[in-house]
Each structure stands twice: as C-alpha cells, then as structure tokens.
Amino acid sequence: MVHFSTEIWCTFHLLFTAVNCKKAIQYYxxxxxxxxxxxxxxxxxxxxxxxxIAFQALAEVRDKALNCEKAIQHYxxxxxxxxxxxxxxxxxxxxxxxxNVYQTLAEVRDKALNCEKAIQHYxKALNxxxxxxxxxxxxxxxxxxxIAFQALAEVKDMAVNCEKAIxYYxxxxxxFDEEDFPEGYRRIIExxxxxxxxxxxxxxxxxxxxxx
Length: 212
Fold this sequence. Notes:
The chain has 212 residues and is mostly helical.
C-alpha cells in the first residue's frame, strides 16, 4: 500500500478541486450560450448561480481575490431573476453565498469594507430566514453574522463590533441549543462568545449595543 504524506494529499486534493471547478465552469458557460435572460430566465439564473458556486469553490484553492470577484458577478446576475418577491428562498440563498464570498475576500483585501458588505448580504438573507419558518438557516446566518462582526472588530470599532458578534452568536444558540443538535455545535459558538468577552474586555452587564 502506498502512503502519502499530509502535504502530498492536500496538494492532490487542491488540484482535484481546481480541475473539477474549471470543468464545471466551462459547462455552465456553454449552457449560457443557450439560456438567455429573456428566453429562459430561470435556467439563466440557475446557471449563473452555479457559476457563482463554482468560482467561490475555486477561490478557496486558487486566485482568491479574482475568483471571489467572478463569483460575486455571477451571483448578482442570478439575482436579476431570483428576487425577494418571486423566489424568496433562492434569493436568500444567494444573499447568504454573497456574504460568504465577501467574507473570503476580506481575508485578502479591504477587510473592513468586505466584512461590512458580507454583513449587509447576511442581513438581507434574514428577510427570508426567520426563526419560526427556517430555524436552521436563521441560526446559520446569525452565526455567520457573528463571524463577520468578529472579523470586523479586528480592524474597526472593537468594542461595538465585539458586542454585536456576541449578540448574533447568542441568537444562533436559540436554535443550536435545542436537544436535536449535537453538543459540539453549541460548544463551538459558546467558545467564541467566551473568547470575545475576554479579548474585547467586555462585561456582559454593560453590553449596550443592540443588533436588531
């Protein structure tokens, strides 16, 4: 049996991911030679959404900023069809994906600006994802908002953004604290909250900045 080192395995994985993303992109682009916004709006939007997903995945392994920008362009094109009124779940999903892309982009460029853009898109997703109707998406989006505000706190308004991060994490725990979810989910978020209280020197009694 051949044994690969972790480094070699990771290299193979990254190459495999990049190759398959590029193939997917080629196929979706071919589809768009047929699917137009005027004649096939739903297929057109789906192809652009899938291109956004493919470029987003590619950004994780290669040319992060460039592929994030391409993902953003395709998601925005899909939103020409997937509107809040006509396709709320697709709309929310793309808004959430845009939030994730801007979070990734913030790792390499304009951290404050891109964190703020991520926050805007996650908040748009919450127009659809409610605690009663979509508890899992609601919790995941609040967790993502916590992550975004925590990253923003590293470069801007530490105390205010730390407090907001904590409040979003706490809101996520309204769902993840139920018996149906593994203890690990809750513990990860609770650990983030604990770290924020310490790193930002926040007294829970004195938290004054609301998130909603």
